[in-house]
Amino acid sequence: MRLIIMAFAGVIFGFFLGVSFPTVSLTKMHLPSSLFPSIDLTYIEDKYSGLSTQALFNALNTIKANKVDSMSSSGYTETKFYHETIFSLGLSSSSRRLDNHCESPLLLALYSTLCASTSDGVSLLFIHYVIGERAENPLGLDSPFQIWIPTNPRGAERLPPGIVAPESDLFLRRLWGLPSEDLTIKPKYLVTFTVGYNQKNNIDAAVKKFSENFTILLFHYDGLTSEWDEFEWSKRAIHVSVQKQAKWWYAKRFLHPDIVAPYEYIFMWDEDLGVENFNAEEYIKLVKKHGLEISQPGLDANSAGLTWAMTRKRNDTEVHKDTEERPGWCNDPHLPPCAAFVEIMATVFSRDAWRCVWHMIQNDLVHGWGLDFSLRKCVEPPHEKIGVVDAQWIVHQSVPSLGNQGEAEGGRAPWEGVRQRCRKEWTMFQDRMNTAEKAYYASLGITDPYNLTAD
Prior knowledge:
- With 455 residues, the protein is α/β, with parallel strands linked by helices.
- Helix content is 36%, strand content 11%.
- The protein has helices at residues 2-20, 41-47, 53-71, 78-100, 105-117, 121-131, 200-207, 247-254, 280-289, 351-360, 371-374, 382-385, 414-443, and strands at residues 189-195, 214-220, 238-241, 265-269, 273-274, 294-299, 319-320, 346-350, 386-396.
- Helix 7 links the parallel strand 1 (189-195) and strand 2.
- Residues 19-41, 90-103, 116-123 and 129-136 have low confidence and may be disordered.
């Protein structure tokens, strides 16, 4: 009788144990590492489909931890474990999943974890292949061994990261010898001039103020390039010739931030600047000393067409970052034209500031009018990062060479049409900036961003 009772109790105990087994946390189980390689992960997923994805994932994490601990001495890593697991799940169940257009919850959990824990492109290509649907395959991968690196630049996702060269430069190279021996000196800065041949003497004097640390780039708006070979420096300069175009047209098309990335500072200068009292290397020392991201040399009092007090040279300081303008011109002393302001005839940009400014230049607004009042949007705080260097100054001669490249219409001189276009562009740029800012703030539900009050 006692034997019957014990047997009956054992059956009851076993029944309840079996019923309750799926709810037992698999993360509490400690299995020998020798068992791990033989575990069929797809079987586990199918067998315990009633368990939540989190429970399965917790169990998998326990297996991972034990296996990595036991095999770490042989170089086994978490990433390798994920590779094996994803590949096992993919090969064992890919037919079922792909035909039925369903996805494995465990694979999706692995996908999230691996994306968060590693930038290993091999990991991502396995995942994308395994969970992708045959009907769509948005990545276009034909096998788990095709490369797809989403962190590569757009369009280069199929390349191994080690071969991707996302940036370039303007360094001149030889056609022979070893590439590593091409450059006897690697220029740190870039200076560009938009020029016509009539101003050759002005440009010759200006170029001689820039050392071998500068790459020299001339944009020719009159189509004359070989004529400049009378100057020795012209042979090491870069010449870009497109007739009847303005400085900012060239800048948008030939000075992409990824092209000029090697240069710490980019000088974008007009052709009508007197440089007798200017030294480029000393200028850069002052820019670095005072933390200027956007700057210009001070304009001598003898300069033609002095418009703004901010850009006039001062005699009592190395650099100034603000000024007092005429009454009513500055509602805020930290905003243009009293601060955070330079003009566009002799602007100098840091690499980071130029990356922002380049994106602000409009393709069809070639004269750049209006940019000067918006440069402040590219640095923070602008009233500290934008300034005028007084200790290195220039004279603005205001020669209307580019203006003469216009067309005479309606009895007006060519320069008059060019000046009218400049004014129109200023208005158009302001309208576009205002519209873009309003649209941005409206998307955030903000109607008046300048009258926000703190809670």
